[in-house]
Amino acid sequence: MTHETADTADTTRTPDAVATAAAGPSGPLGGYRELMGVPGAGRLAAASLVSKLPINMFSISVLLLVSPRYSYGAAGLTISAMLIANALTSPLRGRLADRHPVRPVLLGCLVCYLGGLAGLVASASARLPFAAVAGSAAVLGASFPPVTIMLRTYWRAVPGERTRASAYSLESAAMDLTLITGPALAGWLSTGLSPVLPLVLSGSLMTVAVLLMVTLRRPAARGAGDGARDWLGPLRPVALRKVFTAHVLFCAALAAVEVVLPIYAQKHHATGYSGVYLAGLSVGSILGALCLGAASAELRRRVQLPVLLGAFALGCCLLALAMHSSPSLVLLVCPLTGAAIGSTFAALFTTAGRLTPAGYDSEANGWMTSITQVGFAVGASSSAALAAGHGSSFFLVVTAPAIALAVPFLRGATD
User: Do residues 362 and 94 make contact, with C-beta atoms less than 8 angstroms apart?
Assistant: First the structure.
């Protein structure tokens, strides 16, 4: 994806005017306006949004479809089968995207994904043995089209540091937006119309995302060089492994916050606040990511990953203090804590992209996807057990060490 050269015959502009034009649109939203001026950026943004909705709709859709026909435990196992299969195969699908043409990889994954989705709906609706339901979910997860994985590779090809920063921030904001709207949409469709409809919609949305991607010109690939046959690929550079480690620690800390907030609301007889707390985190995260993308290059250089992680740790401490006061105060603090989440995600993926060896961009993004799910699984399970036995604010036992360990890794990787 490249800017097209225009007005090449205009030789009368002053040096200041030329410099201003080269810098792109001015103002706090200049980076986003410049990004939307890149050919294909609008389709990429649309693909980003519609590809993230299916995975964020999946859990509540399966819960409402499978649990009445089998049990809540069976629904949980179905969700786990999809997530585990997705996490295990994300690097492989990323490697396929790096080494083969886009069209057959995406369309092949889409066919298998739709087959798994159809198998899940059919087996659950017909009350077939549970193995058929779980197996279909595993096929679905293992063949999830790598649209999101490839998107960051496409965004990386956008010209200009400010424009790339805006692109990564927009990607993080889209993730948070679908975290809010996906479950709400799936719940409304399942309870108001049909429990099958959210999964049908998920298949349609993923099909649209794939079609959008295959109609775009693939960015010029960075050469893989001598490492083309290296099976370790993006796991080879020490600096990138450090970023992976910091990422899993950050995800574990974030999962602890997201799990403990509903537990706190339940224990303090404010169950109605559970979803609002999480929405507050997501809204703060969206605003934080968008603000970082709109910031000047000088400010972004100063706001490095250790600073963002420190801001998130401070937000967690404020949450812990608010939990000793009232549920209403916790609600006010949630957006403040969330402000560092989206910007940290954007900065982590940006740093990982910068450190990725040539020819392994999508595979590295696949590893980041897997690491995200592993971090959330570890953080959610450990924090739930601690909060249940020792009180909600005890989640700092998970978050504080995780953030403290992540910072040295990032300093070593980004120095």
Answer: yes
